[in-house]
Design a protein that fits this description.
The chain is α/β, with parallel strands linked by helices. It is built from 21 helices and 23 strands. It has a six-stranded mixed beta sheet with strand order 5-6-15-11-12-14, with helices on both faces. Strand 2 and strand 3 form a beta hairpin. Helix 2 packs across helix 9, helix 4 packs across helix 6 and helix 4 crosses helix 9. The termini are far apart.
Length: about 625
């Protein structure tokens, strides 16, 4: 019998009785209904003994073939067939600050209620505390005073592997039969799931192979090896690595441990939500970082069963918004590209199990910018003296932004999901944090190239303004381009300063939120401008030996490279800025060559920063040209 559709998540699922029933009605994967006996099994959690309900299918039935013990899992709608997946780009859906994306919900069915009851029972009986700890829920008084939001930090970054991922991995692996454990497990991951699986394998005494892309930073590889697992470096990216892991699992008879798209993994992650409700009964909002969706699916399954009044809100980076778009369209969306800055949540496609639960239960998903994530890392450091990884700070950034925009007065919880930070990344985080905190602004002004103009410019900006960065190089042009940063105490003062400069004939642009400026152009002031037929491209080149050669083999010597900028930031993909001299008639050939590298690239030529610093918008700049014989020659 179908229930009426609900605009918001429905929380009346007879949750309390689900954990106590001795007979439950579970959905078989073949669509049939099975009444299963519940046999108690004793598990030890320290000094506490918990009886966990494990389904025992009737002898007359033929349960679906699954790895591990015969546990009847809930029926999961199929979302993964190619025809059902929608290809999108992150920029297809840009939200306003603090805005929640719409959720396309279906009609609530009776089997949905039964399935949620299964998840509630699975979370209550999840076997995670052999390896995980109940993480602290710490108030953040400094942030509360600064932003007016009562934020509490759920410190999953304090787990033994500095991430929540070991909960789901261990809960899944603890259900594998001894016969299957003897054959070993395998997973694919470049980060926290790898360490969680390795630790779980050590606890269970089984062999583990962790497949990681060849671009994985050495610090993460060594962390997995220290836990006793075997590391196999395979594939340029996660998709290739996962394909290798699944193929090897089939060949060697190993059990593949998925990072998020599995009911038992989801249930393990759901114990975070169980702890939140117990630690802070007055909670009103819970903000959860979203990658593949396992963490938010588990948290929502528990909280919406026990406390349907609590809002569960997902937070994604603006350039990795797969769940946002999937919930909006009512079907799983696959991103054609993904911003890897917050690599722990940089997922192209969410899981089918996770999507199904989130579509029913989550109140909405919002997005945050890279500089806002960096600002959240700084906020948490100043609050706790702990350094989160970017993915670990995503929910904090969302809680701050949503709370300020909507004036939230109640208790807010943000899940700090991980702290596996590469030290090399701190440089970029520090650089972007002040922009995200609105404490610093990056501006570009064009002033006359004559004596005394610089002094006049500084007087117009104001002698009480603190310059934090200043870059200028003389050119033969009549105008000088100055790129600089100033401290910001009030946004209105900054706007007034820009207005005064423009009224006095000094063209000024605010480039604080321009990624190309922050990562590249602010380090490149000077040099030739207005190079004819020059275009600017951002290319993501894998951080491995030989990757740059692959790019250069595709574009050189046919096309002349006129400018480059790159600095490692500790991620798997290096963002490199190239200037390339290419006539309009040859652009299709160049872009075909770029496509042949299978690297993500973006044409940045029309950005305001590039046009003002190097393009034809500078007065007289387009007079500069290279001779026809000035071509790069191969070595």
């Amino acid at each position: 019998m179908a229930a009426a559709p609900c605009a918001a998540p429905c929380g009346v699922f007879a949750a309390a009785g689900a954990a106590q029933r001795l007979r439950v009605n579970l959905g078989r994967r073949d669509g049939a209904s099975v009444h299963a006996r519940v046999a108690p099994r004793v598990r030890s959690r320290g000094s506490v003994t918990v009886r966990a309900a494990i389904t025992d299918p009737p002898e007359t039935s033929s349960p679906p073939k699954v790895q591990g013990p015969a546990v009847i899992l809930p029926q999961v709608p199929i979302h993964s067939e190619a025809g059902d997946i929608m290809d999108v780009f992150p920029e297809d859906m840009i939200l306003e600050p603090g805005e929640l994306g719409a959720v396309s919900r279906g009609v609530m069915r009776a089997e949905d209620s039964e399935r949620l009851n299964w998840y509630l029972r699975a979370i209550l009986t999840a076997n995670v505390y052999d390896v995980a700890v109940q993480s602290p829920l710490d108030a953040a008084p400094k942030m509360a005073e600064k932003y007016g939001v009562k934020i509490h930090l759920k410190r999953e970054d304090l787990q033994p592997v500095f991430s929540f991922k070991l909960r789901g991995a261990y809960n899944r692996m603890a259900q594998i039969s001894q016969e299957s454990l003897a054959k070993g497990v395998i997973c694919s991951s470049a980060g926290n799931h790898a360490q969680g699986t390795a630790l779980a394998a050590r606890q269970l005494g089984c062999d583990a192979v962790i497949c990681m892309p060849v671009t994985t930073p050495g610090i993460k590889v060594e962390a997995v090896r220290r836990l006793g697992a075997t590391v196999a470096l395979e594939g340029e990216n996660y998709d290739a690595c996962q394909a290798y892991a699944k193929r090897r699992a089939e060949e060697e008879g190993r059990t593949f441990v998925p990072p998020f798209d599995d009911p038992l993994v989801v249930a393990g992650q759901g114990t975070v939500g169980m702890e939140v409700v117990r630690q802070l009964p007055s909670v009103e909002y819970v903000f959860v970082p979203v990658g593949g969706g396992g963490l938010i699916a588990g948290i929502a399954a528990y909280i919406k069963s026990i406390r349907p009044d609590v809002k569960v809100i997902g937070v994604e980076p603006e350039g990795a918004n797969a769940m946002l778009q999937s919930l909006f369209h009512g079907k799983i969306c696959r991103l054609n590209k993904v911003d890897g800055f917050a690599d722990g949540v940089a997922v192209r496609q969410v899981g089918g199990v996770c999507f199904d639960l989130c579509q029913q239960l989550v109140d909405g998903v919002m997005t945050v910018k890279t500089d806002e994530i960096c600002a959240a890392i700084k906020d948490v450091f100043e609050e706790t003296r702990s350094i989160l990884e970017p993915a670990g700070a995503v929910a904090v950034a969302g809680a701050k932004l949503y709370g300020q925009v909507h004036g939230i007065e109640g208790n807010v919880v943000a899940i700090t999901s991980g702290a596996n930070m590469n030290f090399d990344r701190l440089r970029v985080v520090s650089q972007l944090a002040d922009g995200g905190l609105k404490q610093e602004a990056t501006l570009l002004s064009i002033i006359p190239e004559r004596n005394g103009s610089f002094k006049h410019f500084v007087e117009l900006v104001g002698t009480d303004v603190n310059f934090t960065e200043f870059k200028y190089r003389v050119t033969e042009s009549e105008d000088a381009v100055v790129l600089y940063s100033v401290s910001v105490d009030d946004e209105k003062d900054l706007e007034a300063c820009i207005k005064i400069l423009r009224e006095n004939g000094i063209n000024t642009e605010n480039l604080t939120e321009d990624e190309a400026t922050q990562l590249h152009l602010r380090h490149m002031v000077g040099g030739s401008t207005g190079v004819s037929n020059e275009r600017c491209y951002k290319v993501e080149i894998p951080e491995r030996a030989g990757a740059l050669d692959t790019f250069l083999d595709a574009v050189s010597p046919k096309f002349q490279i006129t400018m480059t900028h790159y600095r490692s930031d500790g991620t798997a993909q290096g963002k490199v800025l190239f200037g390339i001299k290419v006539p309009d008639t040859e652009r299709p050939a160049l872009e075909q060559a770029l496509d042949s590298t299978e690297m993500q690239w973006e044409d940045m030529t029309d950005t305001t920063a590039f046009k003002l610093l190097y393009g034809c918008e500078r007065s007289g700049a387009c007079e500069k040209n290279f001779g026809a014989d000035e071509k790069l020659t191969p070595p």
